[in-house]
Records
---
Amino acid sequence: MPTTPTQENDVFRIPIGPQHPALKEPGHFEFTVDGEVVTAATLRLGYVHRGIEKGTEGRNWIQSLYLLERVCGICSHVHATAYCLGVEKLAGVEAPPRAQAIRVLVAELERIHSHMLWLGVAAHEAGFDMLFMYSWRDRETVMNLLEGITGNRVNYSANQLGGVKCDIDGEQADDIRVGLDFLEGRIKHYLDVVSQDTMFLRRTRGIGVMTREDCERMGIVGPTARASGVELDLRVHAPYAAYPEHPVNLVTATAGDLEARFIVRVNELFESIRLIREILDDLPEGDLSVRVPRRIPAGETISRVEAPRGELFYYIKSNRSDMADRVKVRTPTLPNMASVLEIAVGHQLADIPMILTGIDPCFSCNDRMVAINDPSRGEQAWTWEQLRQYGIEYYR
Amino acid sequence: MRLGSMWRDALSALVREPATQQYPFERLQAPEHLRSKLHWDLTNCTGCGLCAKDCPSDAIDVIVLDKKARKFVFRYHVDRCTFCSQCVMSCPKKCLEMANDEWELASLTPDDFLVYYGNEEDVETVLAAAASNGADASSTDTE
């Protein structure tokens, strides 16, 4: 793996990463350039593989919830929700309506925090640090609301198997409404900034254009796909938890460039705010949780939820013990990463950080080990020692 | 399209109060539902150990000295705790509670992260056993 620019056969290659490739997470990109223009791009992931899926096989169903919540520090609640919904489906129980509503409420607050975090990071990559600092200052409002509801600022642990742990009383509801009123005003201002500021638009308008066909071919998900006109949002098309009772209006754009990705994400913030207000006005009465057996009946299921970055997929298999037999996680960054390599070609090298940030990547979420069985070579099983050796060689 | 769309923010920031606090001279009021240090109440505890079994970070040991006489010691590793409050949810007798104002838990000595709850003489017994067995009490006496 070269770490300095190299020139072979008149091809000039620039390595970026694995340390700090635009974002403070590890990933190794290699761009072939002609002058300042990128002509080809490759990617290598896997620097933060943590063995979380394997880790769940040694913990009971309850403990695994907290491990899986830590797949992502930004969208931890949505991971816990996907896991809880899957395990509840396997156990044949359903969380009470009040719990489902609170799950959605926390998920939407989390979406606000995640999109505002992204707005700041993306502005920083564009060299607009003022927008970065102000959006992060205002993001504190939603962080405080989440802390007020759940008791934690990050990794909220609002979910438990069978429901939620935290209730929302009248005083908290009022606090949330006040916070949302403030945020709504600020977000309107940020929408003006990202859609009108001349300097900023020079970094976003017409950059990284992806057509609807490109998105569908590469399997792009989430706001990145919606910015290209793909009508795909699991909250709308496969509603879960309390989304059937509180429908979401799909936010899309057609331009498919970076500006459209900004506008889609910022407009999603308004939709989240509307949804939270609707839930607060119509919070069902009742219990917060139901009992889930310690041993989950044998079976397998999938659970899909809409994370801030797109579709989050969980596969859960139980063999009727108190531990999961297999948990497979696919986070939205993995499919979206393909788009970076494709749309980088033809752009200036200086636009690459913005294009990468445009998909709102989360590197540590997507690092999984996948071994593909080649039928011509027969079944392959890896021993622990082989895996260990492979790991040592990989990082050498 | 316009230039300098955030100049109003910049000007208003000149006359605004700082957004940060001068901690530790000024302390923010902790939210009512904040999860901080865990507290255990012996009164109803049956020593079932569900709290320890469900703890995702191995932060709880329930040391059973005599189950019939209900002599239990609750050892809490503050440094391992992730403040998820699963133990509070798992306890069938509601013996556990998370305080909302004991969040200043940083310390320079590891001993401060090991908290024992229980009757004084039972804690003494456990500490004496730990001292004779080495630095840490054996985990075989936990249930």
Note: The first helix of chain B runs from residue 7 to 14.
---
Amino acid sequence: MLEIRNIKKAFGGLEVLKGIDLDVEKGDVVAILGPSGSGKTTLLRCINFLEKADEGVMRFDGEEFHFGRVSRREIARIRRKTAFVFQSYNLFRNKTALENVTEGLIVARKMPKAQAVEIGRRALDKVGLSDRYDYYPHQLSGGQQQRVGIARALATDPEIIFFDEPTSALDPELIGEVLAVMRALAEEGMTMLVVTHEMNFARTVSSKVVFMEDGAVLEAGPSKEFFESPKEERVKAFLRTINQEKESL
Amino acid sequence: MSERLIDILIDSFGKILLPGLAMTVPLTVISFTLAMGIAIAVAMVQVADIPVLKQLARFYVWVVRGTPLLVQLYVIFYGLPRLGVILDPFPAAVIVFALNTGAYDSETMRAAIESISKGQIEAGYCVGMSYGQIMRRIVLPQAFRTAFPPLSNSLISLVKDTSLAANITVLEMFMATQRIVARTYEPFALYCEVGLIYLLFSTVLTWLQRAGEKKLGKYGPM
């Protein structure tokens, strides 16, 4: 459904993405792992055109786009079928939870208000916020704000949702509620591309893992294989460190 | 205080307040409304990084902030007729006050717009909104709230600055006072009186500011 070929991106002279390939099938939950600075977030932002990649091809939904020369109209068309969940939530601070979810439907998609509100309420119900429709972001906890962010993504009925480290900004005790929502989405068959540091989530929820280091994919494959019999020495070392950290807690 | 002085003060109160309500208030309201339009447009041109217009905007702010208000009034009212442009006192004053206040307020608006997190703009794009929609519905309402206290400052300044329009024959509060002084020779009492009336106007605006801030505060601290 989503195919990326040879995507490249440099900031100034620094190559952040050195030609990456990525395949996502419908219903896949792909976890992108790797140490910080490996280019995971940049990859995700380039795929949704929040950063402009220098080179590469994207095939999405039967259409082909070239990152170097994609038009504004094409970007708008792709974004209609995708959604993005941010590390720092990025809720509209002057809008209530419900308005955050309905804003894109009413303003961008010209949906009648009543219908948008209906969809918005359902999306918030789904992430467990049926009692928080009229709360402003500052009245919600980080975990609740991120769930509004997920509801906002769901409301547009996307074919794929991109998650950029959705739990990294959260206090430890709030991470669980967000992961639970994501887990439920995965079980419903939602296609998801998730940049994350949550090994447990990657291990138990994702169907595929892509391990990045230094702007390139070091290893990619089904999650089970990745965690049980990693091929690359670097990946083994990475997993060992993670496990040791866990045991020392 | 002599009885005569008390009579003069009482008698003049209405004669000063009336041009205040009939001239100072409309001059302020019309000028400030236009100034806000100018400020938003000039700020947006810079934030959206539109070539040429952006340079023009900077040039405008540079010239207007860098020259005295009184000089600007004189250039427009006494200077322009030399170039064949003759303006009545009131429109001349409105043009100068709007351009002057607009220049300062555009910087306030620009700072306020730039203070809104880029993440909200990105989120707007991701739900399919256009740049214009994001500005109108997400960024500007929040920027306006941030800018509200400094904009209130600017409005209160403007109320008092309209007294300079007396120099170009606009019959507002201060000029009305000058006329009464010329007749009665009581400069101290009468100039204090008009000062108090300006203070009264500013006090009302301060109340309005407080009420406005309360209303805008509903979605919490930034």
Note: The CA atoms of residues 70 and 206 of chain B lie 26 Å apart.
